[in-house]
Amino acid sequence: MPSSLSSPSRSRSLISVALLGLGASLTLGAGCGGGDGACGTNGASDDGLLASAGGVVLTFGGLASGLNNDCPAADAPAGVTSLTIEGTQTDGSGAITLCISRPDKLATQTLALGPDAVSSDVRLIDLGGSSNGCTFAQDTTRIPTGTVAAAGLCGNGSDAAGFELVVNGATSLTRTCGQTVDTVGVTLVGSVAVHPM
Questions:
Q1: Which of 45, 85, 86, 187 has the most C-beta neighbours closer than 10 Å?
Q2: Nearest CA to 175 among 124, 120, 109, 129?
Q3: Tens of pLDDT along 109-122?
Q4: Whose CA is closest to 33, among 135, 161, 143?
């Protein structure tokens, strides 16, 4: 007598359940950036973002993100809230703030870095620090440029696993050393871990 486990209808049921489980896994992974669909920082350094130029290095880390809706996009789909990322200078007394209008896009593509919603999806809100006895502040008369990408970004940046932020940009800082004030162009480059607030 043949077993009921080997019957054609039982086999179809098992295959259907397996395919249903596979479909659910693919759907859950679809919202995550990065090559393998896994959420998380991918081992990125906690202090891997550098603003630097000849002899000046400002290192930023401790990046934390929040769905604060500080820079909402007019074209954002329902349920998408802008993402604010804040960090501190680890080798001085400074800070960095970025705002991403469409974190749903950051999960799947490289976005432009800039000063406002007209020219960019990622805004450099604030950048400043200290080094070599001088202080540095963002020069708002010069436009930041470059790109920002992410890997392992899930839940539009709210997932507890965090994500990896990859920045490749440039901007200008006002340098103050005692009575001397000038402007210095810096690259803003690095791969850094971002954790939810």
A1: 85
A2: 129
A3: 999 999 988 889 99
A4: 161
